[in-house]
Amino acid sequence: MKAGRGGARRSLTRALPLTPSLVLLLLFLAGPIAYCAYIAFTDLQLTGQARSSFVGFDNFTAAFRDDAFLNAVWLTLVFTVLSSLIGQNTLGLALAALMQRASKTVRTVTGAVVVCAWVLPEVVAGFLLYAFFRREGTLNAILGWLHLPTQNWLFTLPILAVSFANVWRGTAFSMLVYSAALGEIPKEITEAAEMDGAGGWRRMWHITLPMIRRSIGTNLMLNTLQTLSVFGLIWVMTRGGPGNRSQTLPLFMYEQAFQKSMIGYGTAVALLLLVVGSLFSLVYMRLLRSEA
Fold this sequence. Notes:
Strand content: under 5%
Distance between the termini: 39 Å
Helix content: over 70%
Mean pLDDT: 85
Number of helices: 15
């Protein structure tokens, strides 16, 4: 009994330093999430309402019957796949692999340029890419100099334009993750494969990718969660337009909650976005667990 009480006392003593952090998490993270979950089941509005009432799942039912919401879900998936799963992940891995064979000067310059795009505030990056894609912007100036056809990219291909912008801004994170992962691969393995006649693509496919698969899974999960919540970049470049052709779920949620004053409905959309992010996380965690 004394040994049991002594072990419990030691466990409590070890847990005491964590108590302030736990209280802060409950107060500033779990508390707001719980309150938002409650609001999602009410008809709370910003204007013209004396009190809110509990409406159950009406907000969620209305969302799945709303064509604008379904369009936002589709565009969110397109934006996430293009800019995160394909763009940032692939380009980050390619840059990391190329920089391993580059000179120190090239590595320093390339790393500085890519990281500078990453550390820029989202609003500043949005304005830079808006200036690049607008009708009188840099891209059309380059195409005109090459005697190639120009167009208003933010009007004709808005979701592709904002996807490219997110790739430009966020690739640095993937590059840093893969640079660290590639640096951990023993050189003896790649040198032995090279001596056996394996080309660059075969070494990449059969040696490099399998050995860094856990880093790939972790990078995909973090990039996906970050991309799902992108708001400022798209808002600055297109504001979800033209029409709603680049309106992802964060912009749709903002429109419903703060422009149309339907806080309950907008919060329900935010919870659905949280569910989407959770599903992606569960898939990645399951893949990582199966590889362990």
